[in-house]
Write a structure and sequence with these properties.
The chain has four helices and no strands. Helix 1 packs antiparallel against helix 3 and helix 3 runs antiparallel to helix 4.
Length: about 180
């Protein structure tokens, strides 16, 4: 091989080696970015999404208990509690109140988690459902906060007749 060709081979080899090194550097950078993204995804899953799922599952169970055991026909959970407490006294509805308190507390926890996760959410459907839940939860927590405290007892039992007829649809209820 003459010196011209040997120099050309050396330049080709050197250029190929440099190209291969640059390729390897790019591959490592992509792999590192992928590892960082996986780590961040796992953090978000552990810090927010798994906790949201657990709270929603437990809320669903409590909600079904309330609706199956305590709901007055045509009324939502909070309205049913007020009707029962006025009619029977709040002492007889302590368990219903405890379930409702737990449900409201879980709604608040879910709302906090959703608000924390919001900057990372990318799916439009998740954002939409999250916003709907947050609006509902805030309203429900406020409505629960204004429930009368203490014993309705007999003196309030005459108020049962003044309760208006149920509103059709889902306005103000969890139904």
């Amino acid at each position: 091989m003459d010196s011209y060709h040997s120099g050309r081979v050396a330049r080709y080899w050197w250029g190929g080696a440099m190209g291969f090194e640059q390729h390897e550097i790019r591959v490592r950078a992509v792999q590192e970015a992928s590892r960082r993204q996986e780590t961040e995804n796992q953090r978000l899953l552990n810090e927010y999404l798994t906790k949201i799922k657990v709270q929603l599952t437990e809320s669903k169970s409590i909600y079904h208990q309330l609706t199956e055991q305590y709901l007055e026909p045509g009324w939502g959970i909070l309205e049913s509690y007020v009707i029962k407490a006025r009619r029977d006294g709040s002492a007889k509805n302590t368990l219903m109140f405890a379930f409702t308190t737990d449900l409201v507390g879980r709604d608040s926890k879910i709302a906090e988690l959703l608000e924390g996760y919001a900057p990372y959410a990318s799916a439009t459907e998740f954002k939409t459902q999250s916003d709907e839940f947050l609006e509902h939860a805030r309203t429900y927590v406020l409505r629960f906060g204004v429930l009368p405290q203490g014993d309705f007892g007999r003196r309030a039992s005459s108020c049962v007749e003044t309760v208006p007829e149920p509103v059709s649809g889902s306005v103000g209820t969890r139904n």
